[in-house]
Amino acid sequence: MRIMKNSFVIFFFLFAILYSYEALSQYKMKIVSYNTLYAFQDSMNREQYQKWIKEINPDIIAYEEMKGFTQDKLEKFASRYGHPYAVVSMEHGNPVALSSKYPIVNVQKVVDNMWVAYLYANIKGTHLFVVHLSAFEYKKRTEELRLILAHAATLPQTDPILIMGDFNAFSRKDADQYDQRIIDEIKERQERKTSAGRLNLKDNSIDYSAMDLLPAAGYTDTYWLNNKHFQKTMPTEKYEGTRVERRIDFIWANDVAAKRIKKSGIIYDNDTDEMSDHYPVYIELDLK
């Protein structure tokens, strides 16, 4: 009887160790992607953002439109909210950027053939692409996405891969949300911008073909993994009425990453209503 009792205690002890090891070997990673409207435009917005992001406490932040940020400025900015690692795609224009609690490795900054640039990096075994596609021509967005997906195809497909940012493009999944109002707005903006090549409509209709490339390549729009109804990513409440509502900010995941995502969505609160003209998007995923 004593032998059986001792065996049970030993079994329970070993089970507890194995369970603890398994629990420790898994962790949740929260990722936010945010178009900052020219780096939040002023110091007041940046101070508001610093306070807000500490409360949100993401592990990784992907930024778009980080105007005026050099590598040094970004590192100092990120350190104030607890991210010791940061990288910016370029030090002019409206770069994309990354900050992280964990080392950012194998960084590639791709400027050639891009309207802005895109960043590729690996953080704790997860491959990340931060993108800001052309705002001015649907054909250019298609070219840029083909380049990004070709890069992603060279990576181990057994690893989690995420493609995130401001795509300046519409998803076919949201097609029933867009009516003549948004077509008229795009036409009007094209007429005001007389530069050659600024064409966002295809045969006077919304182009979905650029974004169609992502599901065709096996990527999942993470928003729909945990949400049943359309929500906009712009404009925010502060800029309401300046643009027709749309969802153009996305986090796309390959099958490996999609299966690990526990939460996804768009962050609406009093702060995000004011800080930019875009709302941030986010995911939480389990990693081993």
Set out the fold topology.
Elements lengths: L1 H24 L1 E9 L7 H14 L3 E5 L6 H9 L5 E4 L8 E4 L4 E6 L7 E6 L2 E7 L5 H16 L7 E6 L13 H13 L8 E2 L2 E2 L2 H8 L3 E2 L1 H4 L22 E5 L1 H4 L2 E6 L5 H4 L5 E7 L1
Parallel strand pairs: 1-2, 7-8
Antiparallel strand pairs: 1-14, 2-4, 3-4, 5-6, 6-7, 8-12, 9-10, 11-12, 13-14
Helix pairs in contact: 4-6
Number of helices: 9
Query: How much of the sequence is in beta strands?
Result: 15-25%
Task: Choose one word for the global shape.
Answer: globular
Cα distance spanning the termini: 40 Å
Summary of the model, kept short:
This protein is an alpha+beta fold and 288 residues long. Helix content is 33%, strand content 25%. The protein has a single domain, classed as Deoxyribonuclease I, Chain A (4-Layer Sandwich).
Supply the key terms.
globular, 9 helices, 6-stranded mixed sheet, alpha+beta, 288 residues
Would you give an account of this structure?
The protein is an alpha+beta fold. The chain has one domain (27-170, 208-287): Deoxyribonuclease I, Chain A. It is 33% helix and 25% strand. The protein contains nine helices and 14 strands. It has helices at 2-25, 43-56, 71-79, 138-153, 180-192, 209-216, 223-226, 255-258, 272-275, and strands spanning 27-35, 60-64, 85-88, 97-100, 105-110, 118-123, 126-132, 161-166, 201-202, 205-206, 220-221, 249-253, 261-266, 281-287. The chain has a six-stranded mixed sheet with strand order 3-4-2-1-14-13. It starts with a helix and ends with a strand. The model is unreliable at 8-25 (pLDDT under 50).
